[in-house]
Amino acid sequence: MSDLHGADDALVKAVPEGAILLLLGDLINFIDYTSMSGILTEVFSVETVSEVVRLRTAGDVLEARRVMEARSEGREQEVRAEIGSRVQTAYDRLFEALPEPTYLLLGNVDNPKIAHWLCEATPAVTWADGRVFELDGERFGFVGGALPTPLHVAGEISVEEMRAKVESLGEADVLCSHIPPAVPELCYDTRAKRVERGSEALLAYIEEVQPRRHYFGHVHQPLLSSMHIGRTMCLNVGYFRRTRRAFAHRSGDD
Questions:
Q1: For labelling alongside 231, which of 8, 65, 75, 147 has CA 20 to 30 A away?
Q2: Which residue, among 183, 168, 252, has the nearest Cα to 216 in the 3D structure?
Q3: Who contacts 19 (Cβ-Cβ below 8 Å, separation ≥6)?
Q4: What is the pTM of this model?
Q5: 185 φ, ψ (degrees, to nearest 5)
Q6: Are residues 69 and 175 in the same domain?
Q7: Are 105 and 129 contacting, i.e. CB atoms less than 8 angstroms apart?
Q8: Residue 85 lies in a domain
Q9: Are 19 and 33 in the same domain?
Q10: Is the domain of 47 the same as that of 145?
Q11: Could you report the per-residue pLDDT of 132-175, keeping only the tens digit for each?
Q12: Of 176, 95, 110, which Cα lies nearest the Cα of 143?
């Protein structure tokens, strides 16, 4: 499951009893572009957020940031505190809903500090990033985070950090990440009409190691949801906030 974006109410229904949940990042909802809901519209006006979305979609990230800063002028500390409080509440609610066991990595919109602390405090949840676990006889390797963009959001990491995590995995049967490998067909978002940033390190790992599956999310409306790279089936597990469906992995499936 990936790109939960605050839909923790649907998560409980989507995970069968006794299943292992692999949660691939983007856990809370800052802004749902379709419904104009989320933390930003709770702090700012819908009109302001709509303008920011329009500018981001047009590729004018700097102007979008300027609009947000202008709306916060004179009350920066108040706005930061309110957003921080709502982020904490969203994570608290999510972690209360996560089943046991859950293996977790983070996406670009996530707050690593809060999420890591809650992982340590929640026995049902395992921080999986950069680690390999044997589950039902298969080795699952996890790589969290997203690569830098002009948005400079909390869950972004450097190219070097991403490569180091990928290279530390060794051989895995199933690779799990938030972002896709750097393949244009898997990275292109048909609604946003842009190519999201994929990882060259993930692509190199797939080409060299050839895990059986690679699961990821991040691209909400992909041009292609799946494709083979050699033996490896690369599969976008879907934008959970919209689909309300988890992807079922069964050990030994082709």
A1: 147
A2: 183
A3: 99, 248
A4: 0.93
A5: -65, -30
A6: no
A7: yes
A8: no
A9: no
A10: no
A11: 999 999 999 999 999 998 888 899 999 999 999 999 999 999 99
A12: 176
